[in-house]
Amino acid sequence: MKKAILFLWLSIFSLPLLSAQLKVSKLFSNNAVLQRGIEVPVWGTANPEDTVYLDFNGKPAQAKTDKEGKWKIVLPKMKAGGPFKMTISTTIEKISFKNILIGDVWLCSGQSNMEWIVLNSNNAKAEISQANDDQIRHFKVPHTYSLLPQDTLVDGTWETCSPKTVGDFTAVGYYFAKELRKHQNVPIGLLHSSWGGSRIEPWMRAESLGYKDAEESARSIQTYIDSLQVRTTRKLEKLLGGKLPLEDQGMKGDFPLWASPDYDHSGWKTMDVPGLWESQGYEALDGVLWFRKEFYITNDELTSSINLNLGPIDDNDITYINGQKIGGLNSYNTDRNYTISPKILNEGVNVITIRVHDTGGGGGIYGDCKKIYYKSTKGKTSLCGQWHFKVGKVEINGAAAPNQTNTLLYHYMIHPILNYPIKGALWYQGESNASIEGAKDYQKLFPTMIRDWRKLWNIGDFPFLWVQLANWQGTNDQPSDTGWARLREAQSMTLNVPNTAQAVIIDIGETNDIHPRNKQDVGLRLSLGARKIAYGENITYSGPVYQNMKIDAGKAILNFETFGSQLASRNSEDLQEFAIAGVDKKFYWAQAKIEGNKIIVWSENVQNPVAVRYAWANNPIKANLINKEGNPASPFRTDDWEVNKGEE
């Protein structure tokens, strides 16, 4: 997952008002969506003690700026509709916006699975070609961070949905909006503020994390960063065996020394590809690594171009064949697919060189081995396995990533949008907090953040919907306890907060990829929660939820909340992923069957059961308890036992 390096530019925290010209928040632009049914503030700056005039849909209003030049005009409650025009002016300046709609605005926040775009999701080509609903709009808050709260977004604009634009929309948000539009005839605005790899703490206000105020958190975080930088530098010097290269040794000016086909890389170390280098002994290493691998081409293969596929690279790459650049992207979650001209190939040995620049967090050529190959007239040839590599440059300027550091994202990606009314929020995050201890903290952090955001927006307990963690990683031969299972439990526990709903997706994850490409079903399941919670439709919006258990004759009898539906098994198969334990707390796989809206669970290995767990694993791939509508049951456990040592 992508994490950017934290550069502490202190001047950003207390910028004075440098310009007296008329300005309005970036949230107001052409194609904006304003929230219906609630007063909508419009705000900005102009000359101190000047008068600002606003005309929206033919209705005039005005306000006086204060001594700092700040102004705010509040639009009355409005019904869904549009398009409308907005004009903001002073006696000497005027700003105009067009194609503004009144509808429902949904905040989309979290980490990389929320940031994941339509272009990189399932059936992207077909979905993009059919994306012609201009009543769906998207605003992307840029990645920014600060030690102290900021009032103004640095950039951003509203985009209408079309085949030209939708590829860069948040996929989860887009498919959510697309489903809502089938049932709610109102425009939908997606206010997208997410950052890949982020923990929950960076999205939270200082006071909600136990600090006295933002100033106290800033001092504490700055001290931590200073100490971390020193410790990280020492660690990397030990790892790399000497002074750190702060300039790229593989480049001389613009010339790639280490990409030359004649360059001798026999003394380089080797690394498995695919795989992030942090998982191969190079934790905390950010900067530039060069990778080289030889491959062999026959004369017959030189008759046409060759396709080179490298999968995703975190973060940026420049790729060379025999010293010639053939491509490069600045995107950590996009597959690299390059074309090699036969003119730069040799019969026999050829050399691929990849300059990988990692700005923070995970780095390297990662993903699925099946995506790393070249394709010629003779078919596909895998490039997985050991590649030679060498560190070209180390970046150590502030080793703390902003998406891992308390408050920093809240200050610049949430605080500036608090005045913009929303219908509700979508949240897809938790992977970065998914450990045993992290899950325990999440039980408090998540509901605290929801309550605090609602307080700060000051528009009531708006609907808050989230995605439970998908199934991921390998499966277990025996029942086990994991951070991912406990993080899912923390998410489910947060349903105790009013006006919330959860989309369970333990059936659509991918074993080898933390980013499931099926975002359509994620958006669909979130939309069910919205239709129930936000729009009051009488629908079954959730899968079965465990309620209670009793023991009878050596068997556990489980009761469920079915929300008016019925329990079922996917494809009518025997129920799987149930485990049962006695007082010794040792779990065994169990048999389970549906009787009405109850489930009976037993095992010949446990004569006197006291606890049952279901889908309690990183990747409960066989979990098949659903309701008749096909919505999966949420993982659960009946016990409250602490994790056994060594199980995580």
Number of domains: 3
Provide the CATH top-level class of the largest domain. Mainly Beta
CATH second-level architecture of the largest domain: Sandwich
From the structure provided, what is the oligomeric state, counting identical versus distinct chains? single chain
Derived from helix and strand composition plus strand pairing, the structural class reads: alpha+beta
- Helix content class: 10-25%
Poorly predicted segments: 1-20
List keywords for this structure.
Jelly Rolls; alpha+beta; 16% helix; 32% strand; Immunoglobulin-like; disordered N terminus; 8 helices; eleven-stranded mixed sheet; six-stranded antiparallel sheet
Short characterization:
The protein has 3 domains: 23-204 and 410-466, Immunoglobulin-like; 245-394, Jelly Rolls; 545-637. Helix content is 16%, strand content 32%. It has 8 helices and 37 strands.
What does this structure look like?
The protein is of the alpha+beta class and 648 residues long. It folds into 3 domains: 23-204 and 410-466, Immunoglobulins (Immunoglobulin-like, Sandwich), CATH 2.60.40.10; 245-394, Jelly Rolls; 545-637. It is 16% helix and 32% strand. It has 8 helices and 37 strands. The strands form 8 sheets. Strands 2, 4, 5, 7, 8, 9, 10, 11, 25, 26 and 27 form an 11-stranded mixed β-sheet that branches. The protein has a 6-stranded antiparallel β-sheet with strand order 14-24-15-20-17-18, with no helix packed on it. Strands 16, 19, 21, 22 and 23 form a 5-stranded antiparallel β-sheet that branches. A hairpin with a 5-residue loop joins strand 31 and strand 32 (587-589). Helix 3 packs across helix 8 (519-533) and helix 6 (436-457) runs parallel beside helix 7 (483-493). It is globular and about 75 Å long.
